[in-house]
Amino acid sequence: MSLLSVVTLLLACGFLGSLAKQVDRNSTQVEYHSDHKYVHNRITNQTFVLYQRDTPKPQPASPRDLFFEVPLNGIGVKSLSALPFIEMFGLRDRIAYVGWAHSAPSSCIQRLYRDRKISSFPQDFLYSMNTVGDYPTFDESSFEEKTIQTQRSEDSDVQESAEWLRFYATFFNLEEKAAVIARDMMHNYHCIKERAATNAKYPKPVIAWTGVFERNGETYIEISMTPYKVNLTTDAGATMIDIDSIHATQKNNSRTTYGYAAVDLQRMAEGSLSFTDMEPTDVYHPERTASLFAYKIADAREVLKDVDILIDETSHDLGRFGRLTFGRSLTAENVLNFYRLNESDTQLNFIKNKAIFREDRSSGWGTYATAMPDAALEDVVNMVHPGFNQFHWMRNVYSDQEVIGVRSTSCEDPEAKLANPATICHEPNGFVIGSPRQLPLQ
Q1: Residues paired with 160 in a beta bridge
Q2: How far apart, in whole angstroms, are the C-alpha atoms of residue 328 and residue 75?
Q3: 141-145, 250-254, 336-340, 437-441: which range is least confident on average?
Q4: Which of 76, 101, 217, 246 is buried most, with the most CB atoms less than 10 Å from its CB?
Q5: Which CATH architecture has domain 201-413?
Q6: Which residues, in sequence order, are CB contacts of 28 under 8 Å at separation 6+?
Q7: Residue range 146-186, pLDDT digits in tens
């Protein structure tokens, strides 16, 4: 039995007394006492004192400590990055409100909203004003008293994404369950990785995660190098586009480089992103930790000349592009138009080989794929090795696959745990896989 299992069992039985036991993960440190636990999130630099219901409130170790009675019975989920973890525990019934619930990429959340069992923020503004303050709320940006700060999982690597599952579990006394889910998920991830490695291609195909956005009257192509995408790409047997090489060859061309922490394309499209360490500049700083790089659209052919597989992340409702295509699947022609390219640009391998993908086969890549890295890896492996398995979120824009919309009527049981769509992986033995089976959440 693991240390975490022992600590959880003793804690439940009240046998720890005043002796503290520590469980130290990469991003979260938990210190257990008889009737409370200290949880320190190194990423957000927050410390929580979680004490059992019907027990005295402990003394704070620091004025900045945040106190919560656990398990939490009612919560708000303002940032969707927290949503899949709550759903994986089967705790939708604890949710009082969800940010933009009416359009959340979860059929069961939409059904609960339709049935008026949860509220949406900010649509139900008056209701939210009266109730939000009563609930501990998971949010990425707020620093209010009852806010449990989170982070977009894409900004973490694959292992850290699994650690977020353990972090959320501490607020519901579900650490042991989280450990089992994370263990099985990461075992499945590494099995898929090994199977891809047994069929590696050489040279490795080059993947670019890109999007197009407009800002201040200019159109840019953006390349994303977030840790999560780097992990998925390399573990699928491919390699990321060489940013250093692009800068070396583009030094005399017009370009813009952003050196800031990862910000999603939707916020860029809305013009609401904020730069954390530098304004747009023509000076490349390789020593800075940057995960997004933007170039003027006129340089698209040169920037993408070595790319074998293009993953387009352009916002579906981006300005003039979206008005032409909203409500239906984007075609290869639509996507190429974003980049000012066309089918005749066959010097580009991703056009010649019809290898352009979007994350829109079904909704929720940005919310759910980061919480289920094994399923996400399957999608990327399927691009590198066509036919490896079925796609979950990705879609080849040259195919006739339609976008699968999220509808409240698709939810059969709102109280059921969120199922992981990943196929249960077996030891490397080629790419022959039987009927896909969902990985059970213990």
Answers
A1: none
A2: 35
A3: 437-441
A4: 76
A5: 3-Layer(aba) Sandwich (3.40)
A6: 39, 40, 41, 42, 163, 166, 167, 170
A7: 888 887 666 678 888 778 899 999 999 999 999 999 999 99
